[in-house]
Design goal:
The complex is a heterodimer of chains A (184) and B (155). By secondary structure, chain A is an alpha/beta fold. Chain A is built from five helices and eight strands; from the N terminus they run H-E-E-E-E-H-E-H-E-H-E-E-H. Chain A has one domain: Glutaredoxin (3-Layer(aba) Sandwich), CATH 3.40.30.10. Chain B folds into two domains: 94 residues, Orthogonal Bundle (Helicase, Ruva Protein, domain 3), CATH 1.10.8.640; 48 residues, no CATH class. In chain B, 13% of the residues are buried. Classes of the chains: A alpha/beta (184), B mainly alpha (155).
């Protein structure tokens, strides 16, 4: 029996639709995902500035430990949601001192609001001001929250778009440590 | 022959105008003009389908300020665009790069257009040649038979 044009057109459209469904069903959630970045495997861009505590901060001086560079804003709901996870990660590594968090304020948050945010939500790591947004440009930030994992040698090993969890960060550190050991 | 000559002249004039419009940068531009041109060629990283020039987002404003600062520091447009590509990746460009493999994005549509026009011209020529054929007795017989079948068809 000969099939008409309509039959084959319907088959083609059905296949395309099935392809779309498969594509959407197999992609990771956009809530939190490892993202590609030209910075991966390269030295972390300079991160220096005044902190909320009135001290000066330089990422370079943190070599020898893992650093999570987190871009956030107080008005960003996913940032508020991920904050307890950053606190958990920071506390887990407080005793050993092998990893720490540094936050960079994205957008123009006034200092009082930032202080209230940390008083309310916890966390006592450095919060670096970025009034002109230059640090965010150097890191190629495309939205918040966004985090970069920097290894003890100062190289960017991961970029995470969306909220992170303490377990996820620890898994990334463990995987990167394995790679470093394998390479050495 | 004269008709083909007119088409050829028109093709040369159109191609020349397109090349001139694409390549010529006009007279020397101010820093503001150059900054606007670079901002228009970059995609706003935090918003969808807007250039850095059009967007009011914090990131777009920071990029506009940064572009002016870099131009004043003596960086070229290529260097500035290169910096943003090195931070955000190729997707920061609103217009694909015209060099290397990315240049195919510009070349392929032109090649496809030329092939399509050539194909149409060839097809028209073939159809015209076919239209000039003599009708044979065999052709007439075929038509008569078909018409007979049509008349006998039950209504």
């Amino acid at each position: 029996m000969r099939r008409g044009v309509g039959f084959w057109s319907a088959i083609a459209i059905g296949l395309v639709l099935a392809g779309f469904v498969w594509l959407l069903a197999t992609r990771d959630s956009s809530r939190s995902r490892l993202a590609d970045s030209p910075l991966l495997g390269k030295p972390a861009p300079v991160l220096a500035g005044d902190t909320l505590a009135g001290e000066s901060f330089e990422l370079e001086t943190r070599s020898g430990r893992w650093v999570v560079v987190n871009f956030f804003a107080t008005w960003c709901v996913p940032c508020v949601r991920e904050h307890p996870e950053l606190v958990r990660f920071s506390q887990r590594h407080l005793a050993e001192g092998d990893a720490e968090v540094v936050s960079v304020q994205f957008d123009r948050n006034d200092e009082d609001r930032l202080r209230r945010f940390f008083e309310r939500n916890g966390g006592d790591w450095p919060v670096v001001a970025d009034p002109e947004g230059r640090i965010a440009l150097d890191y190629g930030v495309t939205g918040i929250p966004e985090s970069f994992l920097v290894d003890p040698d100062g190289f960017v090993v991961s970029k995470i778009v969306g909220g992170v969890s303490a377990d996820q960060l620890d898994a990334l550190v463990a995987a990167a440590e394995e790679q470093r050991e394998a390479a050495s | 022959m004269r008709r083909w000559g007119a088409w050829a002249v028109m093709a040369i004039v159109v191609t020349g105008a397109l090349v001139y419009g694409t390549v010529d940068e006009g007279s020397a531009r101010t820093t503001e003009d150059r900054a606007r041109s670079i901002a228009a060629s970059l995609r706003c990283p935090t918003c969808r389908s807007q250039s850095v020039l059009e967007s009011d987002s914090t990131q777009a404003q920071a990029i506009r300020t940064d572009i002016v600062r870099r131009l004043q520091a003596g960086q070229t447009e290529g260097e500035i665009t290169g910096y943003y590509v090195s931070r955000f990746g190729e997707q920061i460009r609103l217009r694909p790069d015209s060099g290397g493999v990315a240049g195919l994005v510009w070349v392929l549509p032109v090649v496809a257009l030329v092939i399509a026009v050539a194909g149409l011209g060839f097809a028209f020529r073939r159809w015209r040649v076919q239209a000039g054929r003599e009708v044979t007795d065999a052709d007439r017989l075929l038509v008569e038979r078909a018409r007979g079948r049509w008349r006998r068809r039950p209504t």
